[in-house]
Amino acid sequence: MNAVVFICIVLALLCRSFGNTDIAPTLSETTAPPSIVIEFANLSSRLHSGINVSAIANHALHYDMVVEVKVSSNELIEFKLYKCRELILGGNIGNKTYILSDSWLVFLFSAGQKPCAFETYDLSLIISSEKNSTGSIEIGTTAKKGFIQHVRNDVNKKIEIDQWFRKIDKRRLSLGPAISTALTNANTTLALITNLTKIPVVRLSKCQSEPITIEIGSKAKTTLSRENMLQIVRLNELICPEDKEKMCMSLYLTAELEPSLSGLIFPYTVKKGSRETSCLL
Questions:
Q1: CB 179, CB 189: distance < 8 Å
Q2: Which residues partner with 7 through β-bridges?
Q3: Where in the sequence is the signal peptide annotated (predicted)?
Q4: How far apart are alpha carbons 230 and 237 in whole angstroms?
Q5: Separation of alpha carbons 169 and 235, rounded Å
Q6: Is residue 178 helix, strand or coil?
Q7: Can you spell out the DSSP letters for 14-39?
Q8: How far apart, in whole angstroms, are the C-alpha atoms of residue 209 and residue 206?
Q9: How far is CA 198 from CA 75, 254, 262, in A?
Q10: Which terminus, N or C, of the chain has the lesser number of Cβ atoms within 10 Å?
């Protein structure tokens, strides 16, 4: 009997304890802007690190910021950045703060949307040094105002990646849910971003209809107007013979590009004042 009473008392105390426990706020309410810190000490041979950078670029994109890379090292270090085991960027870096261009903002944002089957991270970073280097690399975001963009000649940028960034001739899109959300929610809109060195003219068409022409601005991203989105909705009402059995919006995205130009055009929805993103490719 005493054992039963004791157990009841313990359970009552536990229930009271749980009832007085504050519920932890959601992640979005407590988490600081995303960042990555890679520390190294006595670095001579290569150090490999898998990094997830798409969240950082996502934050910069939605809050109109830039991606900042702070390098602190007592010696010059060599770095190589890989995507799906393909070398993307390499060079020597030292004590300096680097501001990445809009082209690389799009690249980092899309890195998480195109995962490799054999990797669990966005990009692979390998650093090495001829001398025993000690320091850190910090990747984060910062406001656009007041920064100085550093350009180094020893950094070889490689944007054209054959097996990932294909030349854009024609691509099928399903934009129905995104357009519906953007039209019914005043705080949500549809945007296009690109990392192409030359800004393309995007054309959307269906069933050989007259295409909708959208020019991407000088900042490599543009927001579709309500008129554009209504035009796309009207395109959705067309039923092509080859699409009769499909219950989705099938559009053709074409871009006016030079034959040798490769890159990525990325449609996504933006919810203003939020980090919510819906990728469409």
A1: no
A2: none
A3: 1-19
A4: 11
A5: 20
A6: helix
A7: HHHHHHHSPPPPPHHHHPPSP-EEEE
A8: 6
A9: 37, 15, 10
A10: N
Q: Which amino acid is at 180?
A: S
Say which residues have a Cβ less than 8 Å from residue 38's Cβ, sequence separation at least 6: 49, 51, 125, 127, 136, 137, 138
- CA–CA–CA angle 52, 271, 200 (5° rounding): 75
CATH topology assigned to domain 31-157: Jelly Rolls (2.60.120)
Segment 58-89, tens digit of pLDDT: 888 777 788 889 999 988 888 888 888 877 77
Residue showing tokens 């000088």 = 218
**pLDDT in single tens digits along all 281 residues of the chain:** 555 555 454 444 443 333 332 222 222 333 578 999 999 988 888 888 899 998 898 888 777 788 889 999 988 888 888 888 877 777 788 888 888 876 677 778 777 777 787 888 888 999 998 888 999 999 999 887 654 444 333 333 333 332 233 344 455 555 666 677 777 777 777 777 766 656 667 777 777 777 788 777 666 677 788 888 888 778 767 767 655 545 445 566 665 555 555 556 666 656 554 444 433 33
The residue ranges of DSSP E strands in the chain, in sequence order, are 36-43, 47-51, 65-73, 77-83, 86-93, 96-99, 123-128, 133-143, 156-157, 171-173, 188-194, 201-205, 212-215, 221-223, 251-255, 265-271, 277-279
Between CA 17 and CA 61 the distance in angstroms is 43
Cα distances from 212 to residues 26, 127, 215, 232, 256, in angstroms, run 41, 46, 10, 8, 13
Secondary structure element (H or E) that encloses residue 55, with its range: helix 54-62
Q: What does the block give as tokens for 233? A: 């909705």
